[in-house]
Amino acid sequence: MIKKLSSIDADFDRQLSDLLAMPDENTGDVKDIVRKIIDDVKLRGDQSVLELTNKFDRMDVASISELEISKDTMAQALTRLDPLVVDALKLSIDRVRVYHQEQLKALGGNSQWQIEDDEGNKLGQIIRPMERVGLYVPGGKASYPSSVIMTSVPARVAGVSEIVLMVPTPDGVVSDTLVAAAHLCGVDRMFRVGGAQAIAALAYGTQSIPRVDKIVGPGNIFVATAKELVFGQVGIDMVAGPSEIAIVADMSADPEWLAMDMFAQAEHDELAQSILISSDQSVLDAVEKEIARMLPGMERSATISQSLKDRGALIKVETLDQAFDIVNRIAPEHLELAILEPEQMLPQIRFAGAIFLGHHSGEVVGDYTAGPSHVLPTSGTARFASPLGVYDFQVRSSVVNCSARGAITLSRSAAILATQEGLEAHSKSAQYRLLG
Length: 436
Hints:
The chain is of the alpha/beta class. It has helices at residues 12-20, 27-44, 46-56, 71-79, 83-106, 145-158, 176-184, 195-204, 221-230, 255-266, 281-294, 301-311, 320-330, 342-345, 363-368, 404-420, 424-435; strands spanning 3-6, 68-69, 112-116, 122-129, 132-136, 162-166, 189-191, 214-216, 235-236, 244-249, 273-278, 313-316, 334-338, 354-357, 394-401. α6 packs parallel to α7 (176-184), α8 packs parallel to α9 and α10 crosses α11 (281-294).
């Protein structure tokens, strides 16, 4: 039920490429649908959002005000939760906050820096938080209070003034845990709106939903496509694909743990990807047996089974070095090093969204309680993209302050270069400074 690849196969490169390729989802058709939704929201605002929400989420709501969850309602949701759930939420929030506070400190905070050259020219940069950001949290197949935490806490630590949260609620069902998480994280406004219409409303604003500076958070293909299409109107974090994990394991790993870690990704979505790589065939064989043994008892067995069948793999390599070469080619969202002395192997990893070292560092703690945001680059984009962090909620302005003396040196060369580019006004603008 799961593909088995070997690095010594003559066509291994092709097999790996086929494995990593995303299935065709008629993206052209999706873009056409999403464009129409965006255009309609731009034109009709609240009325469009209302009609689309009623249609896609099978609701019967008369006004946008009914779709907004008030701060009082957020607070009340907390009172209905099991105390153990509240404690778990608070632990997660605290750890994510501490991690990102340290990240902000390492980046120099929201401040400025400056240098001065020999002629008195002062050059620098001012770093400021964004004013208003929009968070998208998926709903539908599952509810994700963890995504509320992983997006809102870094934004708040960065100093964002206003946080607007959008979440779909099919059939009007709202998760108390998700709403309570929004309350604990200090979300300012929350709307029960999902899909492309939520992204369009955040990007352009409506009569009731404020326009934001940036939209972050994962979603389905319609949400991802909408984010792609509104980019430029607003900032976005990334265009995320299905969840994925690559695991490098040796004989020291527990096959049952490995199989369950693969299940943990596969249960997200039929398009999620779980790949296990080992130089020891007995490890791969043992995990395959555990998959067959444990799968029937899993609550989401149908989704897991389809995911492993279509996009999962057990890959046999000759050496660990070869395993890391494959990992860098995959550039996975999540990477587990279930091996002895994983710290020593860390320098060999060039591309991965989040790296989990050793047998006790299961990817699941990264989803909920470790501290770093679980919003990560997918589909190989870890080659050029990074996990969501406070830097995603900051803007930077360059500052140039020329002295009278320094302006002469800089303007003289600027005039020469402008002339070379055929830009007369540029050149004369510089020359005016030479004349004083």
